[in-house]
Amino acid sequence: MCIRDRLKLPVMVNHKTVDPKDKRSTRVEQLEVAMGAAISLFPTSTAVEVNRLRFIPVKKCQDLLVLRSDVYRIRAADHHLELMPGVEAAPVVSLDDNFKLMSQCDASMAVGVPSLRNCTLLVINGPVKFGPAVKFLGKVKVVNRDGKTHTLPFGEYTNKLIDMTGGGFANGPGPKKFSHDEL
User: Fold this and answer.
1) To bridge 115 with a disulfide, which of 12, 50, 94, 135 should be the other Cys (CB 3.0-4.6 Å)?
2) How many helices (H) and strands (E) does the chain have?
3) Cα–Cα dist 153/135, whole Å
4) Is the pLDDT of residue 58 over 80?
5) Could you give the dihedral angle defined by the CA atoms of residues 44, 45, 49 and 55, in that order, rounded to the nearest 10 degrees?
6) Contact, 123 vs 96, CB < 8 A?
7) pLDDT value, residue 34
8) Are 169 and 162 in contact (CB under 8 A)?
9) What integer best gives the mean pLDDT of the chain?
10) What is the DSSP code (8-state) at residue 104?
């Protein structure tokens, strides 16, 4: 369990670049250990489950987007987070590497944080900014393949595949049903 007063924990390799804002910068390997793995070294240890109303992990910008949106509110009595009335579950959100850094996430929501209260799934691939009063409902996928940042204008987007490549909407204003390949 211990080697000279040190825990023997597995080493993980994390591939990064020297400058996380520049994918072309020098690639490096960061070695790290997960302290959570130490629990396996103590035979009588147990886990404590913390209710999601007390602790909602934010590991990626997609988690932060949900938290900043209108999905949760803070109860005045005890300052715990709770789902807004009428919201049964937080949406599943998947953002690509265009939202990897906080600066990218903040820039995408500089004008407004989209409403996710009635959204069940949001997938965004490509550089996209949100205009004011954007609402996602149901399952929505936004794609932008041209590499230029485009702003999604205000409005409600319900069960749609939105292609912003070239700055427009390739699928028109009507809803489009998803196939498994599209999500």
Assistant:
1) 135
2) 2, 11
3) 10
4) yes
5) 160
6) no
7) 79
8) yes
9) 85
10) H
CB of 137 closer than 8 Å to CB of 159: yes
**pLDDT-derived band of residue 28, with 50, 70 and 90 as boundaries?**
very high
Token readout for 115 is: 């409403």
pLDDT of 2 above 80: no
CA distances from 182 to 60, 128, 140, 176 (A): 23, 18, 10, 11
pLDDT of residue 78: 84
Q: Are 9 and 34 in contact (CB under 8 A)?
A: yes
**H-helix or E-strand spanning residue 61:** helix 61-68
**Long-range CB contacts for residues 179-182, cutoff 8 Å, separation at least 24:** 182/141
Tokens describing residue 154: 């205000």
Beta strands 81-83 and 128-130, pairing class: unpaired
The helix (H) or strand (E) run that includes residue 136 is strand 134-143
